[in-house]
């Protein structure tokens, strides 16, 4: 998938965190005392942004490592672009390997979840991310019947919604585990909650559903959780 506006804004924010201190020093050098006040303001903004960034990063890692406590009916892996040779990138391979660990752990406990690689075809790609991800999973020994590729989504929200629709169409209901990168965990969890709220507005469900990130994989409400990979 092509880089989204949200990713571009995040990149610009990261650059600004490092650029602001440099600009502050240059202001002092070029304008002396006049630039000192502006430099102090820039330093304060940079320090606040850096503290927020570090807090977000730490919380994302901790959140992604929390025990999900589910026995998932499916493990959805979010796409993240392909290499020039149309194979998975190291980042995407990390997500797939995390999903494989979950899948194999569930198999050892007697559960057999579907693996759902989710990702459409970007404008600069000759095949869908889901196709490349499926190929990687099969190469790692996953039986073909345990992989259900979702190859239409182009955003994180669509990853969640189209995957749950696909599972519903294949008669799969129950908890869904979403696998993404650590930096992407909180956004994914937030969108899963939003998706669940949208569905709950039209589809009633039983009380007592966990308040963590949720989405639906069938006509009845089901819970989901989000984990990250390094």
Topology:
Elements: H1 5-31, H2 33-65, E1 74-78, H3 90-108, E2 114-118, H4 129-139, H5 156-169, E3 176-181, H6 185-200, E4 224-229
Parallel strand pairs: 1-2, 1-3, 3-4
Summarize the helix and strand pattern as letters. Answer: HHEHEHHEHE
Domain module tally: 2
The average pLDDT is: 75
CA gyration radius, whole angstroms: 21 Å
Tell me the number of helical segments per DSSP (H or I, 4 or more residues long): 6
CATH superfamily of the largest domain: HUPs
Q: What are the low-pLDDT stretches, counting only 5+ consecutive residues below 50?
A: 1-6, 198-224
CATH class of the largest domain: Alpha Beta
Describe the main β-sheet briefly: 4 strands, parallel
Could you explain how this protein is built, in words?
The chain has 230 residues and is α/β, with parallel strands linked by helices. The chain has 2 domains: 5-65; 74-229, Rossmann fold (3-Layer(aba) Sandwich). It has helices at residues 5-31, 33-65, 90-108, 129-139, 156-169, 185-200, and strands at residues 74-78, 114-118, 176-181, 224-229. Helix 6 (185-200) links the parallel strand 3 (176-181) and strand 4. Helix 1 packs antiparallel against helix 2 (33-65). It starts with a helix and ends with a strand.
